[in-house]
Specification:
- The chain has 227 residues and is mainly α.
- 65% of the residues lie in helices and 0% in strands.
- It contains 9 helices and no strands.
- α1 packs antiparallel against α3 and α4 runs antiparallel to α5.
- The protein is globular, with a radius of gyration of 18 Å.
């Protein structure tokens, strides 16, 4: 049960600060939309998304405790921070698409910074287990959000750097994006597994990338031998 508490707490901190980073980046570039909506806040209730913050974490905890007896994986998301791209500027520079790239990257950057902070705090022996979860959750969230499909942050980066016509086409995927991501990465692998067909791109990728990312964080913070 303590693992479930660690997982949920680490996930809530990670997703709330992820969204807060988007809002702060936009505010730093002149957009006050998030501030006016009260979203530049550490109050968790301001950022709750019924599916990503409540249902999914509870489902993951209950299903994992029922099947494997422990919480091995946690994921979720907070309510997206509102951003008015047309209000973004840096000095005299006003290029909404390009500046939205910076807003988009602020979220994953926050998660990677939190992972490094968690590694720095691993020496607190009374909280080693929590910070191990905290590092992993932030790395997963940061890497997952770099998937180049809207509404993931990687998709918004793609929209910001592609030629206009291609960017318009990619941005049109956004209203279906999260459903497509969930279908391809969670639903389809489970269904195909029933027919002994292996298709699990997220697990395969993270089994390769996550240990490398964890090792990098450990090395950056002087833990050469890892967790």
């Amino acid at each position: 049960m303590i693992e479930a508490i660690y997982g949920v707490l680490a996930t809530l901190i990670a997703i709330i600060l992820h969204e807060l980073a988007h809002g702060l980046a936009a505010w730093a570039m002149g957009d006050t939309t998030a501030k006016a909506a009260g979203r530049l806040s550490l109050n968790p209730l301001k950022h709750v998304d019924k599916i990503g913050t409540v249902f999914l974490p509870i489902f993951l905890v209950v299903s994992q405790l029922a099947t494997i007896g422990r919480v091995a994986f946690m994921f979720g998301w907070a309510k997206p921070v509102p951003v008015n791209a047309q209000a973004l500027h840096i000095g005299a520079s006003h290029n909404p698409r390009r500046l939205m790239v910076l807003v988009a990257l602020a979220g994953p950057a926050m998660n990677f910074a939190l992972a490094i902070l968690g590694a720095e705090l691993l020496s607190l022996s009374f909280a080693t287990d929590f910070f191990t979860y905290f590092i992993a959750v932030n790395l997963v969230l940061g890497l997952f959000n770099l998937i180049p499909m809207p509404p993931m942050d990687g998709g918004r980066v793609l929209v910001g750097v592609l030629p206009l016509r291609a960017a318009i086409w990619v941005s049109g995927v956004e209203k279906y994006g999260i459903m497509l991501v969930m279908l391809l990465l969670f639903v389809l692998p489970t269904v195909l597994q029933q027919f002994n067909v292996h298709f699990d791109p997220m697990t395969d990728t993270f089994n390769t990338v996550l240990p490398w990312a964890m090792d990098m964080v450990m090395r950056i913070t002087g833990h050469a031998n890892g967790v």
